[in-house]
Amino acid sequence: MKKANTIPAVRPVIPVSDRLGDTKEYYFSTKLREIAALRAAGKDILNLGIGSPDLPPAPEVVAALTESARSEDAHGYQPYVGRPELRTAFSSWYARYFGVTLDPDTELLPLMGSKEGIMHISMAFLNPGDEVLVPNPGYPTYRSATELAGGVVRSYDLSAASDWLPDLEVLESAGLDRVKIMWINYPHMPTGATAPPDFFPRLVDFARRNGILLVNDNPYAFILTDSVQSLLSVPGAREVALELSSLSKAQNMAGWRVGVLAGAEEYLQTVLRFKSNMDSGMFLPVQRAAAVALGLGEDWYTKLNETYRRRQQVAFRIMDTLGCTYDRQQVGLFVWAKCAGSTDGYGTCDRALYDHDVFLTPGGIFGSAGEQYVRISLCSTEAELLQALDRLAVSAASDDSQPESRHSW
Predict the structure, then answer these.
(1) Which of 290, 279, 288 is nearest to 247 (CA)?
(2) What range(s) does the Aminotransferase class I/classII large domain occupy (predicted)?
């Protein structure tokens, strides 16, 4: 019998780039693989971790996509700066909801997702050694994009005591000579904090005094908020600021990858120099459908928030069951809560996953200031949230009958 040929395992011998450094694979990338493996092993895992909307886009948005996709001329390369109709739709959307007038030809750059925009900005403006102010806790991509671009992360701590706002006087007193960019994100993820009316003007003055490019990442503007805010509404903001917006959350188009960078033409042209070498334009039917989504009326956002508000109430009950404390005024697509006593978020989330088949997000993945927190996504149905509540409530009841095991939560 002929022996089958075997291919020896290949050991990588090419070293990784210095640029990659200590940058790790994105937390949710690895965790989703683990959840898939648990499910394959027969576990019924409820995923309350990731902010990927489970609701569909508006029917007219899907119709616009399919209708455009049938056109024979819809499948070629598209302009690097996006189609004029999409830029115009973004301009009208900014004027209607934010009260900000933007030139669609020069002050708006459509992106294939705002996450990509974070990398584009970092690569376009940072030199090796430039410092970047990154919120702690905050979206992990601000840190990883800075590191990949050769910048130096300079964390600024946020806390519940300061309403999750940075102390600008403390930052200034420490010296900012090497700081090039400051990332902000209000409504804030993961904490759900909003910016008070006087905060954006103070930030713009701070950035102007210190020669810092201020970037507001703004994907949660419409989710459970009483009013929407744009950093660019501040007079003079365009001298020192950019803003990222996205259709992922409020338009339920996360997988479509549509975002926009707004700001002064000079800044956008700099970003375009990098971006135009990284992609070949967005699929035309997606752009046409996105333009329809941007034209949705207030009733769309009202209905969306009615759903999220009901889900939020169940998520609050889950946090109560875990013994966590939280701010009921928080906004956005998540519920953020502090663990009881000395319990940390990682331990709480591990017990929820491995003992009760419920995946929650540990606050520590957003920075050291989040280590005693957990986060629940509102991107699951009420039925799924209630099922998670039942599973975790069983554990809490069991702990009540056995005081010595109250370490569970």
Answers:
(1) 290
(2) 43-392
Burial (CB < 10 A; 0-12, 13-18, 19+), residue 205, is middle
pLDDT digit string, tens, across residues 134-169: 999 999 999 999 999 999 999 999 999 999 999 999
Name the residue with tokens 């069991």: 398
Q: How many Cα atoms sit within 13 Å of 30 on the Cβ side?
A: 6
The span from the first CA to the last CA of the chain, in angstroms, equals 61
Say how far apart CA 166 and CA 184 lie, in whole Å. 9
- Measured in residues, the chain has a length of 409
Answer left, alpha or beta for residue 111, where phi above 0 means left and psi between -120 and 50 means alpha.
beta
User: Residue 376's closest CA among 392, 390, 363?
Assistant: 363
Q: What is the domain class of 61-295 according to CATH?
A: alpha beta
Fold of 27-56+299-397: Aspartate Aminotransferase, domain 1 (3.90.1150)
d(CA 117, CA 243): 10
pLDDT (tens digit per residue) in 208-240: 999 999 999 999 999 999 999 999 999 999 999
Q: Report domain extents, the chain.
A: 27-56+299-397, 61-295
- The closest alpha carbon to 132, from 143, 118, 121, 116, belongs to 143
Helices (H), 228-279: 265-275
Give the list of residues 6+ apart from residue 183 with CB closer than 8 angstroms, or none.
Answer: 118, 132, 133, 134, 135, 138, 139, 142, 215, 217
